Amino acid sequence: ELGYETLPHPPYSPHLSPTDYHLFNHLENFLQEKNLKTQAAVENAFEEFIDSRTPELYNTGIKKLVLRSRKCIESITSF
Length: 79
Fold this sequence. Notes:
This protein has helices at 22-31, 39-52, 55-77. The protein is mostly helical.
């Protein structure tokens, strides 16, 4: 209905590690040199980060993740 294709889920791959996703690099840069001492400060900083990003950032990140997933699946199925 929405035009999305469900891809087979590959086994764990370091090439798809969550710590390497597009968004986390931006979050790491945003949090650099911030001194967050309370849970509330962490939550506020995260909300500030999310609110400061454009929709294009998320769109780009999702597209990159889809491409990486497809490459991983193609390499597994080519064995």
